[in-house]
């Protein structure tokens, strides 16, 4: 008899990372987004950093990627910057609510796809169009969420400091604040 013990652990990790209020690693994605206003979601710490809105879009994009791969779609990919890192002219109340709702729906769809699986066996299969397993994809998604939740927490903290309260962000020197190679890490 095949089991799905590992899959159930992965589902628990995905849910804890996304919405647990008692995750051992710190705030979940939902917790770190709590209290973020559209204005805050649209701000940058420096010109080369992402906004919280862009990070939420990016996280949603990779959840959708995982869902499509779980559905067997070998041709679906995220090859353009616009599909991966969409920029927004303005993040208003409607846009911010939409971004958060899309993230939530992509989480629900991901968990729903995983719950359809009968056993752990599929975790060793290669993701269509890639050279890694579903196990790697799902753990990668968990790590991806943790990384970006940490970024969002730092952005929130940074933007709430007195240096950013006057909305004059142009005075910050990009390379002095985050280093010249910051873009390669996001």
Automatic annotation (TrEMBL):
InterPro entries per record: DinB-like (IPR024775), DinB/YfiT-like (IPR034660)
Transmembrane feature ranges: none
SUPFAM superfamilies linked to this entry: DinB/YfiT-like putative metalloenzymes (SSF109854)
Source taxon at top rank: Bacteria
Domain DinB-like: 29-152
Pfam families associated with the record: DinB_2
Signal peptide: none
Protein's name in the database: DinB family protein
Organism in which the protein naturally occurs: Salmonirosea aquatica
Phylogenetic placement of the source organism: Bacteria, Pseudomonadati, Bacteroidota, Cytophagia, Cytophagales
